Amino acid sequence: MTSTVPNAVQHADATAPPITMFGPDFPYAYDDFLAHPAGLGQIPATEHGQEVAVIGGGLSGIIAAYELMKMGLKPVVYEADQIGGRLRTVGFDGCDPSLTAEMGAMRFPPSSTALQHYIDLVGLETRAFPNPLSPATPSTVVDLKGESHYAETIDDLPQVYRDVANAWNACLEEGADFSDMNRALRERDVPRIREIWSRLVERLDNQTFYGFLCESEAFKSFRHREIFGQVGFGTGGWDTDFPNSILEILRVVYTEADDHHRGIVGGSQQIPLRLWDREPQKIVHWPLGTSLASLHGGEPRGAVTRLTRTAGNRITVTDATGDIRTFRAAVFTGQSWLLLSKIDCDDALFPIDHWTAMERTHYMESSKLFVPVDRPFWLDKDELTGRDTMSMTLTDRMTRGTYLLDDGPDKPAVICLSYTWCDDSLKWLPLSPKERMEVMLKSLGEIYPNVDIRSHIIGNPVTVSWENEPWFMGAFKANLPGHYRYQRRLFTHFMQDRLPEDKRGIFLAGDDISWTAGWAEGAVQTALNAVWGVMHQFGGATDPTNPGPGDLYDEIAPVELPED
What we know:
Blueprint lengths: L4 H4 L21 H6 L15 E5 L3 H12 L3 E5 L10 E3 L8 E3 L10 H9 L4 E3 L11 E5 L2 E5 L7 H18 L1 H10 L2 H15 L4 H7 L6 H10 L14 H9 L7 E3 L5 H8 L14 H4 L8 E7 L3 E6 L4 E4 L2 E3 L11 E2 L6 H9 L2 E2 L1 E8 L18 E4 L5 E5 L7 E9 H5 L6 H15 L14 E4 L10 E2 L6 H8 L14 E3 L11 H18 L15 H4 L8
Helix pairs in contact: 3-11, 3-17, 5-9, 6-7, 13-16
């Protein structure tokens, strides 16, 4: 459902920049950095053509590689699986190729302004995503404890749901200065952002999301907390996040990351795939017509199996073929637990405090299952009630969230029968795709007893459980209470002048390094941090009119909490 608070705060100036995920921890305007005609920076001509390892071909890795190539360096991309990472778009065997399923990222808020730069750069279109009760969703059914409610707007739901929405808004306002922070973010008022956030970090780092709700007078009712957890506001139920740090949740709601979502026409994996093939018009050292694909002979190198430090403080990379290459700099964008398990690493790669932060990273599980159908039959009207035959569905049953995705009334369509997180995701783990589908159809049959969903299915289901994917081991990080210090170490790792000389040269990036994990925007921002770090290591610099994240670091560095 759409939260009412974010929309209540308007621009103080109609010409002000849009709200963006550039804060509150590190309020740097990545969108302005990308849009500036001076570019992201340059390196000395003597360094042109130098190789830089980029480990991981997801969005963060491909963006880092693309921007380093434009500076005149030679990125060497290693990818264990496929370009895209958790931007994974798949088809259905035997079905129209236009039918696709987003196994990972599928909805993107307008506040993802740095991501939008790359969406526009590669010429992709977006359209409104059918979240619960959003304008793009014809109808929503909320089914809790065996009782279903049909709604086209929140006003169609019983009063208790509006009470819960109001409680959430009041809770944010009284406990987290919501309107003040939202306004500061809109106006990009960095001193005010830092003033508010520093106070909240010190007060709330040890607090869970659920504990934050319980401390609010607005949420004194257990029934209200239960409904909020199961139905939520924005993207659906919040209860799988209840054990996480409230700071993680505030980052989402302050920046409207849970509102106004857009989907990418044709699938999100097109962003990294198109960047891989793109031939930039502004490029240094390399001839026009150069692309990441051409530098790699069409395909990235395979999985990395070993990372070591060698003489001269170099980073030596061994891949699955046994090939060994040594680099002056490397960017690691994979899931951080890979450095603890599947990749044989030297302890000397990182300071011990950074290893500890990686070990403590908490990941959320996530499962989805999609089926192709002959047409968007859910838009048929029930003759007795006049309602849609089927609706976007939020429930406390096994399916939790069911999404209906179509491209027009006469075309084949797709149903995401179930999208679940954490314990709800683990319930699916032992089941095969068809077993999962059968359980899901049974649950939905109890909500829609007169709808024969099965008769419309035209192909086999496709599914994913990210916790069972060997190169991911989870969907995205979500900090637990007390994890702020760990996250700060990982995010600020690109500022390597602050590290011992023998711990420099390898740069962490990826959405689990970011403050806004689970959003592609975090992958983009940390990629740009790493690009700045590599540029700096090679003796390069940004244009004075377009300072990078490292240039402004001392002014906007995340608040540092005491260790003792």
